[in-house]
């Protein structure tokens, strides 16, 4: 394991992403596995050439340019490369922001009798109101963010619906779910994509009603199954409702376990999530969800599956993606996982988009380099 010193010219806001229970009023700790399974290790140097942002760069330049805090690479279940930056350590729980949504997708796949074509209100009767945008929405629409509700995801504006939605977790005041029933309808469900954290929170509400388990309890069972080495942390509102769209924090090594599970749903040869689910959740279900078809302000290089971001139409290469550069990339054919956490600035929307697009070009290159090393 190599640790790089922080660049004194760059002052990334690492502290807002490390050990978030210091900053979030209400959190729950998810215990490490009863029998932790450290990754087998065969570490080796990694050299990659990355083309993007108008030039070709080496791996170190890419990691520096995108404010990287950790890089962990797993090949066929073995840890082959690990680096930390800006004072981050292997024991730090790193906030995944919206990479949490991909963990939620794995939990949804763990529900044997869930009917994803059923109306969400059949599980959550509170949505059965003509004024509620989720009244005619199915679980499949929630998974693909094709609900059509009237929504704009803008966390830079503190008055926006998205910022108000997460405020109960950040401030420890109010509740999440009372806001969800007030989101109005917009377009016809199933006809368009809008990135919407509210969809994830309604999906988690459905998951909870279908299982009787809150998010932290359900995730703790998965955490135990995959042999997590460290406890995780999840933020919730004062009523105990988790921000299942963005508040999970875990070590980089443990984030990698979610990418490994997304390969085929198995862990140590044991079926954890159905293979059919990892296949379906990795693929874009509609032409307008294919890579290159999403709004360019999100990315030109990925599409959207069931809360995972495919880099190809077959869903063989997918990633979890969280604000400010949190990625869990899985090459499902070559069995390579790349975890990259970051602390890039978020205020400049144009720069944020450029960092993200560069990462979508770089993650496959890093995976390829790991196979060659």
From TrEMBL:
<protein>
    <submittedName>
        <fullName>Serine hydrolase</fullName>
        <ecNumber>3.-.-.-</ecNumber>
    </submittedName>
</protein>
<dbReference type="Pfam" id="PF00144">
    <property type="entry name" value="Beta-lactamase"/>
</dbReference>
<dbReference type="InterPro" id="IPR050789">
    <property type="entry name" value="Diverse_Enzym_Activities"/>
</dbReference>
<dbReference type="InterPro" id="IPR001466">
    <property type="entry name" value="Beta-lactam-related"/>
</dbReference>
<feature type="domain" description="Beta-lactamase-related">
    <location>
        <begin position="70"/>
        <end position="347"/>
    </location>
</feature>
<dbReference type="GO" id="GO:0016787">
    <property type="term" value="F:hydrolase activity"/>
</dbReference>
<dbReference type="InterPro" id="IPR012338">
    <property type="entry name" value="Beta-lactam/transpept-like"/>
</dbReference>
<keyword id="KW-0378">Hydrolase</keyword>
